[in-house]
Amino acid sequence: VLLIRPDGTRVWTLVSWTPYVDAAGTLVGYLHRLTEYTDRRALRDRLTQREAELETAQEIAHLGSWSWEVAGDRVTWSAELHRIYGVEPETFDGSYAAVIERAHPDDRDFVEQTIQDAMRDGTSYGYEGRIVTPAGETRWVSAHGVVDRDDDGTVVRLHGTCQDITELHRVAEDAHQARRRLKLFSSIAEAANRS
């Protein structure tokens, strides 16, 4: 509840109440308690703003974040990662198998081996590979992950980022094709000059 003091200062409070009964057990009233919440409210508002800024930055960069709690096999994705993969949050079952299933069939073994190698004896990993959206679109992603271990060295969690680099791959492929055509035309021109 927002209260305004006589000097105009705004104070956020948490309100709680407890039933107050007499010795016979009859409800006499309620004991109300107000706890100042202004600092915590300001912190909550700042965190909310930072989360919105992070989501906007991820959207601009086409860079999503993810986390995998290994023991419970629970994968969570940021909103941008759902957009990159073309998967609605309510249709994603949040398991490791569901993530691997999204990898392009030709890249799936490589992706899984990279992750398993990092879990066995690494602290981080990175790769570029393809994914296939539910609509059948193939996209290139650059994925990077960090492995968190407990004091015994057991893998507890993996987390990281995944960036959509499809457009970069298209530009690189276009440049490669242009170089091939230029080389072919140069060879034809050389042959024509020699004859």
Task: Give a quick rundown of the structure.
With 195 residues, the chain is an alpha+beta fold. Helix content is 42%, strand content 34%. It is built from five helices and eight strands, in the order E-E-E-H-E-E-H-H-H-E-E-E-H.
What would you say this structure looks like, in words?
It is built from 5 helices and 8 strands, in the order E-E-E-H-E-E-H-H-H-E-E-E-H. The protein has 195 residues and is of the alpha+beta class. Strand 1 and strand 2 form a beta hairpin. It starts with a strand and ends with a helix. The model has no long low-confidence stretch (mean pLDDT 88).
Task: Supply database-style keywords.
5 helices, 195 residues, alpha+beta, single chain, five-stranded antiparallel sheet
Topology, pairings included?
Layout lengths: L1 E3 L5 E12 L5 E10 L1 H24 L1 E7 L4 E4 L1 H7 L10 H7 L5 H14 L2 E9 L5 E12 L5 E10 L1 H29 L1
Antiparallel strand pairs: 1-2, 2-3, 4-5, 4-8, 6-7, 7-8
Shape verdict: elongated
Task: Give the mean pLDDT.
Answer: 88
Q: Low-confidence parts, pLDDT < 50 over ≥5 residues?
A: none
Relative strand content: 25-35%
Strand order of the largest sheet: 5-4-8-7-6
* C-alpha termini separation: 91 Å
Number of distinct helices: 5
Q: What series of H and E elements makes up the topology?
A: EEEHEEHHHEEEH
